[in-house]
User: Fold this.
Amino acid sequence: MKVLALNSSSRTGDVSKTEIILGDLLQGMREAGAEVEVVELRRKKIRYCIGCFTCWTKTPGVCIHKDDMTREIFPKYRDSDLVVLATPLFHFTVNAIMKTFIERTLPIALPFFEKQDGATRHPYRHKAPPVVVLSVAGFPEEGVFDALKFYARFLFRDHLAAEIYRTSSEMFLHSTGSRKVSEVREALIQGGRELVQSMKISPETLKRIHKPITTFEEMAPLGNLMWQTCIDEGVTLGEAQKKKIIPRPDSIENFLMLMRFAFKARKAADAKMAVQFNFSGQAAGECYFIVENGTFRTDLGTADHPDLIIESPFEVWMDIMTQKADGQKLFMEQKYSARGDITALMRFKDLFGN
Ligand SMILES: Cc1cc2nc3c(=O)[nH]c(=O)nc-3n(C[C@H](O)[C@H](O)[C@H](O)COP(=O)(O)O)c2cc1C
Assistant:
């Protein structure tokens, strides 16, 4: 089977969620014996359709433009056994690069009007290849794909082989160790195998591919904190990710949320500690976390028997946590105090990473 994957993401490599998710699907396809070619559309010269209809009359089936679409991509598209259209969701639909490609497939149709299933259509000049639509979106609700789903089904109708709509895309960059993300990625590989074997993806595999991995309540506070940190530091999200900038909590609730996000359960199997924070300053108040049997609990208020008590101005602890200040140096300078089992403090880096 000859598979053509057209990727319209404007990002590349390990920062493109479209590429990560498409990569898993294609891995499964290759494993099942398909010959896969990936074309990154952003690297190609594809001019806009100018609506001249030359491809329908003067040069039937051939576009007036002489660019990468006419020379390379359209012939490959027409002759493939399966085409994967992979696009990030932009403003609730395909991005402009993908839309430009789709409009330039006009030569595949004939100009005549036909009624098909009650709707006006143009018949195909050539047999249209089966298509898989794959899209990734930042938002967590499946409904974010409603407009694209409608569009894909109306456009590709009976040659729509499968649809893959992956929400919460950011999780695929930042939670590579997470079980939920790994399960989705395994399902994507399985989906690729099934497509080659049967030209479709089973409902069970699709359910695993589309399984929710975050909720608004989990995603939004952390996302908002990250955006605010980027604004405060005057950096783009990409720069923040490259520099591994840590979002800076502005409240005790956000501090605990970030700790929950950062907690590495795998590293905590043998750890047992209750850590109390008594904050003064910008966000005064008390809170604690408990690590036990690989689990992590947080709450406001005071722990019953804390192993370690940290007393600090909130902003000092946030400086340390976001690596703006050296914790050991500030400890020596008595900018904060730590009482009790100091070895617990030594394990923070291990349990929470950066
Ligand atoms: C211009 C623009 C529009 C976007 N529109 C949406 C949107 O409507 N819904 C959504 O959930 N995410 C939206 N996003 C987020 C992207 O879909 C998401 O980050 C995706 O994973 C990007 O894929 P990439 O990493 O391959 O570029 C938008 C991003 C950009 C830059």
Residues 252-352 form a domain with the Nonspecific Lipid-transfer Protein; Chain A fold (CATH 3.30.1050.10).
